[in-house]
Amino acid sequence: MQRRWVVVPLALVLGAALAGCTGDDDPDPAPPSPTRAVSKVNLTFGVWGTKKETDAYRSVVDTYNAWHAAEKVKVKVEAYGTHDDLMTAIDGGDVPDVFLVSRGDLADLRERNLNQPIGNLLDDRDVDFGDGYSRPALEAFSGDRELQCMPYGISPMVIYYNTKLVDFEAMAEKGLDVPNVDNEDLAKKPTWTLEQFQTAADYASRPRRNIGGFFISPTVRGLAPFIYSGGGQVFDNDEEPTSLAFSSDDTKSALEEVLPTLRDPKLTLSADMLSQKTPLEWFREGKLGMIAGTRDLVPELRPTGVLDWDVMPMPVVDDAATIGDLTGICISSETADVAESADFLVDFISTESVSAVAAAGYLAPANTEVALSDAFLQVGRTPVHSGVFNNSVKYMRIPPLLTNGADLEAAVAAPLKQLMEVEVVDLDVLTEQIDEASRSVLAPPEDPDAPDPGGTESPGADEPDADDD
């Protein structure tokens, strides 16, 4: 439902009241002054994405501006090509009144006081979001028992697969173990095991024709769903991690179960193929059976013309698990127009507005009403099993908030690559190397050259002694 909010300046109300109180001893009252115009409010809305994606945002904003023209409220979209571009602008002091964020930005935003909690603002506008959003989404954007930003997108990692290379029907005819995606009940909620995933990869792989079975990124993010599904943990603490937990017994057990599949050179892309093109490019060209990804791949894959594809959830080792991307909408702590910014946010997260954006195909909405509607499911278009995204949300693991996630991935890149590509003789040694490398980012040692909190200098400083006069 579109909301219209009329803003009447207090000075106008007071002026009208004073005009009615003219005394009798004033023989020549001044003529009534003309009605003052409502003050114009200009808001900025920061977003990122492809042109089609940002055009969807603009369309919603244009509708909002048209509805609120009489109130002199106008929202201007500030669109950036990538998430990093928007964050760079914010780092430089260009903070929009309302802006889109990744969940990974939240710790830094709060540390720098760049956003303001929105729970009371939503309450003041009678917004009941409790039943319309999943608990993981709300918890992901909360802090200090307050909702910091409004969940907007929640996109779990799933497996995209080439239906010609991974042909479940043909595999079943050969007596291979496959998930029963044609069963009516399972079609609504498909699932498969790690063994079935491996079987599919083996069926799709054609090494002599440069066709790989699958690709899983040799990163913390790429391995996380498999570790969680196998009963392991990625971090030593999900609130305030000081290290990765790859050397823990549970995680090593999970790795021992999944690594034989994930690093099988006959099933994945060769180093030579990866040097020529990205895994997504190989998949788009029909040269890769499966690739892990989130909802934003859908519009990229639809217009290929040479690729038939669908989605499945992440394979199950012991229990279903995945990770994913979460986005939210924040209000700047520095906006001069808090009420108008909150009014716009309420409209932008409405079912009608979210449906309009979801129709573009990029967004996996946190709004559950939209997620279950055709605006998102888009029956008749690929992927056939869009419900996989919705079903996977309940199995998402929400990682701890980090301000240095990119630094963490860089610190452990080399040993993780070795873990995923080389036959490891001693898993204990390599996983300990991974955890140790992670500590340099998550719990770095104190700088011995830094001044101590009391302000005294370290021994050997160049300051003269007190007795030297």
The major sheet is characterized as: 5 strands, mixed
Strand segment count? 11
Tally of contiguous helical segments? 21
CATH architecture of the largest domain: 3-Layer(aba) Sandwich
* Spatial sequence of strands, sheet with the most strands: 2-1-3-11-6
Q: What does the radius of gyration come to?
A: 28 Å
Structure in words:
- There is one protein chain.
- With 469 residues, this protein is of the alpha/beta class.
- It folds into 2 domains: 38-155 and 325-393, D-Maltodextrin-Binding Protein, domain 2, CATH 3.40.190.10; 156-324 and 400-442, D-Maltodextrin-Binding Protein, domain 2, CATH 3.40.190.10.
- Helix content is 39%, strand content 13%.
- The protein has helices at residues 10-19, 51-67, 83-91, 106-111, 119-124, 135-140, 168-173, 184-188, 194-204, 220-229, 249-262, 271-276, 279-284, 298-301, 338-348, 351-358, 368-371, 374-377, 387-393, 405-421, 427-442, and strands at residues 41-48, 73-80, 98-102, 142-143, 146-147, 150-156, 158-162, 212-215, 288-293, 309-312, 324-331.
- The strands form 3 sheets. Strands 2-1-3-11-6 form a 5-stranded mixed beta sheet.
- A hairpin with a 2-residue loop joins strand 4 and strand 5 (146-147).
- The longest helix is centred in the first third of the chain and has 17 residues, at 51-67.
- The radius of gyration is 28 Å and the shape is globular.
- Mean pLDDT is 86; it is low at 1-27, 29-37 and 453-469.
